[in-house]
Amino acid sequence: MSSPHADATTASAAPRQASLPGFLVRAWTAPQRLADAVLQALIVAAVLAAAVLILLFTFEGEGNPTPPLRAGVLALLALGLYVFLRLLRWRSAATLQVEPERLVLERRGDRFEIPTASVESVRGWRLPLPVAGLALRMRSGKSFQYGVQVEDPLPVLEALGQEHAQVREEARHPLTTFAHARATVLRPGALLLAFKFLLFPLIPGGIMFRANQYITYGGPFAQYRMYGLGPYLQSFFTYWVYFGAALVVYAAILRVPAEVLASGGTWLSPRRARGIRRFVEITCALLYFVGSLALLAVQFLA
């Protein structure tokens, strides 16, 4: 029979253990991190190349406009690379537990217990690719074998920095505040991205498809009556894909100066990182959703 004192000790220890900070991270070796960054760059390049091909060659020639086959091949390539990237990230998934006297990193059956006294410094990745992360420098002079990728390094640094002045200073670094703002302020989820690049293109695509039906065939359903449902739906699909590609390129063009502005503003004033990020994201959203339709209206009025 267990004693009341033993039960009390167990009960009081459990809440303390549960309250210890724990974080979902990815643990990378240097080659794995490089592979992740390269795969991500290849996916972006393939998607942009497919979009550009669609814009350049969909309406070329005398036949019915259709997206070029090469764009479809690149899209499938991007999808395959994305599946491989997700697999790589799944294999690197880990948890980081911050305890008073040690750090515990668990990764796919491996468990590393790192005494905090053996850690000389914790620094954010100065080249935050593919996203932000942390590197542990040991007192032996060597770096810990795994880098810890975490999209928002600030909570991790705050948990680590309770007794380390260097870590508290790192938490105020512009790269840390930049990553924190990017991870927490108006971050788009999967549903918003689907709406942005799959559903929203139906608006300009539908407008131009309907205009083409009137101009080319004389009415909204004239092509359907003359040639059947297949060619009619193919025309609609072509305009949807075309404007989806145009919006992908447009979003990429907007994103480059937006990130430059957010990064530069954060370096000048780290304390205003969240406000700068909010301004950038709202401006990008307005230019994307309102600006793209305004550009379409200008073409009609020109």
Automatic annotation (TrEMBL):
Keywords (A to Z) from UniProt: Membrane, Transmembrane, Transmembrane helix
Protein name: Uncharacterized protein
Transmembrane segments: 37-59, 71-88, 190-209, 239-258, 279-301
Highest taxon of the lineage: Bacteria
